[in-house]
């Protein structure tokens, strides 16, 4: 048996769940007898059932109830050890009679945090921790940050001209970049738990904030509108899926909050004087580990000023709009170059006629 192969397959399964597992981490699981894969599973859309349960069920369905007895299980995160809506995955593995569990790292959730591994070892199951750790940490980075720091990982995407403009002086912005770059942007949406925009963008563009790629329409993230005064129109496109979260001050605007709730939207209380950290903390409490921001210049600048952009995706079109066009960022209030936000370049490539740049926050 090759540990690398089993873990690689489990990680590949986990990637399929990115942005689809609610407040749960995207986990993959492989059950093997010798060199043969007998069961596969990833955490289901919405977060339940977990990967281990699905992989064991897959093995039982294909090879019989005792198929996993004596098997080796590769799972991309420590099996859970607590009772929630479902029993602990560690119990399921013990009941199935597996012989060995291989996982890259422990789960920092305090309800787990080594308890899952301890339960398995107490039952006589061999536990190996470490294979695939670097890959698992990269895949689970938003979840790990949420558990360790209490805030989501924020990716800010901006599509601009060569001179950093996102719309003409009259507000026309569709489309600055080409179809291939826009499709890649939709793929990033599909891998995120939530997509954040500001009320200015909703009022100006009426976006749907969904995923419009073949086969991925059901992977649309939860749309979140930063809207302190709850000005989102009840007929806005973003409300049509019934999953939208409007972040604003319902205590100050109870009638507007009621009108939004009547559309099926959730109103998340964020005080009118609350800043970006208040908003992100509220999203973290809801379990959103990865937040993809496609807001306008005001929200983008607020995130940058607060130093809360972990990844910056800047898509550059080969056009110029001039100084009277609308810029990608509102004022940052900088007096010195030394105070300018710094992003470490990760990659840069041509996507159709546009250039796709990715940078990481230098202090991340």
What structural keywords apply?
alpha/beta, 364 residues, five-stranded mixed sheet
Notes on the structure:
The protein has 364 residues and is α/β, with parallel strands linked by helices. The chain is 29% helix and 23% strand. It is built from eleven helices and 16 strands. The protein has helices at residues 3-16, 51-63, 89-96, 115-122, 133-139, 141-149, 179-190, 199-205, 254-261, 276-285, 297-305, and strands spanning 28-33, 36-42, 72-75, 100-103, 126-129, 153-160, 165-167, 194-198, 222-226, 245-248, 266-269, 290-293, 311-316, 326-327, 343-351, 354-361. The strands form three sheets. A nine-stranded mixed beta sheet has the order 11-10-9-8-12-6-13-16-15. The protein has a five-stranded mixed beta sheet with strand order 2-1-3-4-5, with helices on both faces. Helix 9 links the parallel strand 10 and strand 11 (266-269). Helix 3 (89-96) runs parallel beside helix 4 (115-122). The protein is elongated, with a radius of gyration of 23 Å.
Concise account of the structure shown:
By secondary structure, this protein is an alpha/beta fold.
Low-confidence stretches: none
Query: What is the terminal-to-terminal distance?
Result: 38 Å
The overall average pLDDT, rounded, is 92
- Overall shape: it is elongated
**Main sheet: which strands, in order across?**
11-10-9-8-12-6-13-16-15
Beta content comes to: 15-25%
Number of helices: 11
Task: Kindly state the percentage of residues in helix.
Answer: 25-40%
Coarse structural class: alpha/beta
Main beta-sheet annotation: 9 strands, mixed
Annotation, overall tally of beta strands: 16
Rg, alpha carbons = 23 Å
Order of helices and strands: HEEHEHEHEHHEEHEHEEHEHEHEEEE
